[in-house]
Amino acid sequence: MSKVLLIDDDVELVEMLAEYLNSDGFSVSTAQNGEKGLPMALGGEFAIIVLDVMMPGTNGIEVLKQIRQQSQIPIIMLTARGDDTDRIIGLELGADDYVPKPCTARELAARIRAILRRMEPGHQDNQQPITVGDLTLWPQQRRIQWRGASLEFTSTEFNLLEILARNAGTTVSKKILSENGLGRPLAKFDRSIEVHLSRIREKLGLLADGRSCIQTVFRQGYLLIKE
């Protein structure tokens, strides 16, 4: 039973989501503010965190920032519908995904399962290390080395990079990246893939010739350079 931490000051919404998730096979704990939720999130007890952006006191963005300084635990942000600014800021700071509010408990459960499923050892048939140039991934351990140095990646960043590495030298569409990396269909005007890949590029740095190892192929998708 996966343990979920839900941090949100909306008492009615929290009760509804927690009741559904508990009945759907999860074990849910709650916190009504960032001050209480942050130490719980860093305690190592939970498999995933659902974090509301808009909270009094320490808001969700600040909580996310502090968590990412110490942990790569999967985080789903709850954002106001249509608020692209908070959404993009959250992704840039390392959120794995977002769900616009108001949301259904069923949708949130599906997003949680999609992220946790892709973290399970053995979700790919071939569990041998994947090496592409200076990049090596160990899917079962969810570990990455770049030029011999270990790097910290969020769950979603790892998923996306693994897909590109398995298809190195071939263009992968945003549709495939969203479905297989985020666990959901690609939505119109959704910039999540771009933001996640920007973070991945920043962590990997540039090749000797000054290029990024992840190239954008106009109107087709993204390609990991196969050296």
Structure, described:
This protein is 38% helix and 21% strand. It has 227 residues and is of the alpha/beta class. The protein folds into 2 domains: 3-117, Rossmann fold; 130-224, Orthogonal Bundle (Arc Repressor Mutant, subunit A). The strands form 3 sheets. It has a 5-stranded parallel sheet with strand order 2-1-3-4-5, with helices on both faces. A 4-stranded antiparallel sheet has the order 6-7-8-9, covered by helices on one side. The chain has a two-stranded antiparallel sheet with strand order 10-11. The termini are far apart.
State which percent range the strand residues make up. Answer: 15-25%
CATH architecture of the largest domain: 3-Layer(aba) Sandwich
How would a crystallographer describe the biggest sheet? 5 strands, parallel
Number of domains: 2
- Tally of contiguous helical segments: 8
Kindly report how far apart the N and C termini lie.
Answer: 42 Å
CATH superfamily of the largest domain: Response regulator
Unreliable parts: none
H/E element sequence: EHEHEHEHEHEEEEHHHEE
The class by helix and strand makeup works out as alpha/beta
The top level CATH class name of the largest domain: Alpha Beta
CATH topology of the largest domain: Rossmann fold
What's the average pLDDT? 92
Specify the helix fraction band.
25-40%
**Rg from alpha-carbon coordinates:** 18 Å
Spatial strand sequence of the major β-sheet: 2-1-3-4-5
Q: Which of globular, elongated, flat, extended, rod-shaped describes the shape? A: globular
Q: How many strand elements?
A: 11
